């Protein structure tokens, strides 16, 4: 039984779900609580096969409510605990995640988006953006990374544990069924070999007495008066807004002289990048912008990227969930907005090329 | 001259007098629990989880690590803690709504998995915090805000018999009992045995405590006690229902 599951750098070819399980091991996660739902099942399958070899634990719960709340319990006990879900499971997970928001519990949740609403399809969509960024009865005090490749799935799953424990906001990896199920190559590595310091978890409850004395901790999420709650949430919001610029991440390409900026996230960005390359080859001025963090949303960076452009084309496998975040972030700019919405299905570079050509006519 | 009231050592004196209504049974259950914790000397090792509903008022009741969760979700939170740190002694404290309605699947599955936790469920036959609606434990004919003409068993079924259900679905190692605030010494004995069962690593421990809600029952002291002692035990038999190592535990009253 070794402490480091990945020795040296290792080029591999595997599915996204397998990548997540390896990343959780690499991040030194201690325990996974899970409930089956497609397309995230193999995260549990791989975790349960590998975890015992490294002294890790797993519990299969009775539903997603329980998976979310046991994850909360595991984190309270001072372990790096995580869970994964999709679709209707994500809906149920919003209840425990709102508790994590209120109590600043550093949970990690991997969402492999499937079609919606309701049971819908089991493979792919980008329709869990609104729920993952602002789900639950609260203010969306959470961090959401949207990945687009298997390498990112590995990198950002490791990062999610550090982000969660550093800032004490629930942290989400928002991927999708394509990433979950397809195979592609990536490099696995031990984060510490690359100088990435893994943050050690610490117990919030069940701490050992110090010098024979124990000061009990009392955690609640109920407040007696509106003013009391207002104070707490205002403080949380201030803290969130203060650290947001450190957390925000984005990627852009060919934006400086572009007439059209294609805005997308997740795997759709792969099509957007390809389309921009093809359009540039044809001498057309098109660029792309991709938020990596959907919450907090890199709004100022997007505003800057589109300052010289005439049109922003928002492309997503949903009907305007990303567009909502974008419109909120760029309020006040006068850029022309165009959309390519395909809820629940994939988007190819060819479709984006055709749409851009039509807009440039 | 004032006489210092007798409180368990594990109680948090700074939050006393407590916030429960006068005549509420929670204070008595928590007193029995506090004394059990004291006698076992486990104050520094306990993690106490409480639900939503009146039980949430216990969030700062004890001088032990405490987490207050959502309605019905205390069992999974405490299960998550115990799984992540088996060294702590975990108590899930809830009401009949939290345990038998919204959180019943968690109770059932924690029991079926034989989670090494102690669940304590206070049965006062109604949803008290939200104003006295019908609960799974409301007695036939009992009037509540949502059964204003009395619980009609043809429409709403019979009261949930929780410990009997838990006893039926648990295997060897489980401890199941039903006590009452009308017999505190016995209730304390059950709570203590439920904690000892967890400490021994045997399995799931479950104690239901019959309790009072004079506010929503709209009863005076005499009627409150009469309901607790005469009406409730007709459906809810007090006694030990399952004891590890014993094939068929008797109901020892």
Automatic annotation (TrEMBL), chain A:
Record keywords: Oxidoreductase, Pyruvate
Residue stretches making up the Pyruvate flavodoxin/ferredoxin oxidoreductase pyrimidine binding domain: 23-248
GO molecular function annotations of the record: oxidoreductase activity
Annotated ranges, domain Pyruvate:ferredoxin oxidoreductase core: 258-336
InterPro entries: 2-oxoacid_oxidoreductase, PFOR_II, Pyrv_Fd/Flavodoxin_OxRdtase_N, THDP-binding, Transketo_C/PFOR_II
Protein name: Pyruvate flavodoxin/ferredoxin oxidoreductase domain-containing protein
Automatic annotation (TrEMBL), chain B:
Keywords, in A-Z order: Oxidoreductase
SUPFAM superfamilies recorded: Thiamin diphosphate-binding fold (THDP-binding)
Domain Thiamine pyrophosphate enzyme TPP-binding intervals: 60-208
Coiled coil stretches, renumbered: none
Top-level division of the source organism's lineage: Bacteria
Matches recorded under Gene3D superfamilies: 3.40.50.970
Pfam families registered for this protein in UniProt: TPP_enzyme_C
GO aspect biological process, one term: cellular respiration
Molecular function terms from GO: oxidoreductase activity, acting on the aldehyde or oxo group of donors, iron-sulfur protein as acceptor; thiamine pyrophosphate binding
Name listed for the protein in its UniProt record: Thiamine pyrophosphate domain-containing TPP-binding protein
Organism taxonomic ancestry: Bacteria, Bacillati, Bacillota, Clostridia, Eubacteriales
